[in-house]
Specification:
Length: 141
């Protein structure tokens, strides 16, 4: 008879996964709005990007808070390194998103430019990477 592996739980609580969906979707949307602005120079795209970025920061802030609490709670488990990488990615993502929000508060063409686009790419890529790390692994019960 084959032995069954011990029960495993997802790395994320379902509500934490819901909170993580906000920065993944909204930072990606802000990146797309920045690209649209750079291609069209229509000012409304930079307004969309600024609002999407703000929403991503709110959802990402709560996801980061939950990840830090989990990091403290699961000090002695095998999934601690994954949880640390996940929390680290969220922290860097949130910091880049905050700097990007400051960049988008400028007027006109300087609100996006090269720096704003690079910050949007970094924020979106880190949000996607954090989602990948969080959803690809399981922790032992």
């Amino acid at each position: 008879m084959l032995a069954t592996p011990p029960a495993a739980r997802p790395l994320l609580h379902p509500l934490q996964a819901l909170l993580l969906a906000f920065p993944v979707a909204l930072f990606t949307g802000a990146l797309l709005a920045d690209i649209a602005y750079l291609n069209s120079a229509e000012v409304q795209w930079t307004n969309f990007a600024a609002w999407l970025n703000a929403g991503a920061l709110v959802g990402g802030g709560f996801a980061l808070l939950w990840a830090l609490i989990d990091l403290v709670r699961f000090r002695r488990t095998r999934s601690r390194s994954r949880a640390g990488i996940y929390a680290g990615l969220l922290a860097i993502m949130w910091g880049a998103g905050l700097i990007n929000a400051f960049q988008h508060s400028k007027d006109g063409w300087s609100s996006v430019g090269t720096a704003g686009l690079i910050l949007s790419i970094i924020s979106a890529a880190l949000a996607i990477a954090a989602g990948w790390i969080a959803h690809s692994g399981r922790r032992s019960a």
